[in-house]
Amino acid sequence: MKIKGSTNIVGLIGHPVEHSFSPPMHNAAFDELGMNYAYVAFDVNPTDLQTAIEGAKSLNIKGFNVTIPHKIEVMKFLNEIDEVAALIGAVNTIDFKNLKGYNTDGIGAVRAIEEVTSIKNKNVVVAGAGGASRAISFYLAKYGAESMAILNRNVEKAQGLAADVSQSGLIGEVKADSISEIRNYLKDADILVDTTPIGMHPNISDEPIAFAEDMDEDLVVFDAVYNPNETVLLKEAIKAGANPVYGIKMLLYQGAESFKIWTGRDAPVDVMEKALKDTLNLE
User: Fold this and answer.
1) pTM for this one?
2) Whether 71 is catalytic
3) What DSSP string describes 143-154?
């Protein structure tokens, strides 16, 4: 990559950002297409968020990805919010052309799952009720899931999210319950989506939310955690002969969606995936 006076800058804002795998993924894509862009990570303290957005606009930065803890707060400083991002109540991508916020997390998860199975008319169990769950749940509903059960340790939080998804009018049946009841829900499930941080590095020996004996061979199991690639939950899915979907795929596809928002071009997904795998030392 050659940085020039005319190089377009896009990047990531969060706090912290040192762990991010997005720079190598996006820069590999720009290299592949011969585009005069560079992707940089910026560590932005929450108290500096507004000035960071104003400064980026002044500096003619083209776009940002947004990660924890800024996904909700940043919405205050944008001119426009995409319809689905507004439903989700969080933004992970900003296009500075019109200072518009989007959320590509949900579409990233959906594209990852749909490599293995269609979501339409499926019964889905979603573990967790935080920001990732919220983004993914709305997209599962949008893509035609028949029913959804949102399970969480804090049942009230699950009930709140279930009510919001139901009120969107995108899906009929949305239940909420304790994650301790997951075994009962998996009996009729087609897809299990884990949005909890359980098993995330360095806690790779956490007890999984479900075990092989709770799963059947037809179940599709998606884990949003991508480090490690094969989480404790996905190990159980493989043991059961179920169909694993890796979190790296969500990272890949949400990145590809952001790339298209900023540039108007389709991302070279195969090149981005190779860069991610190289960064994570995967074969």
Assistant:
1) 0.91
2) yes
3) TT-SEEEEEESS
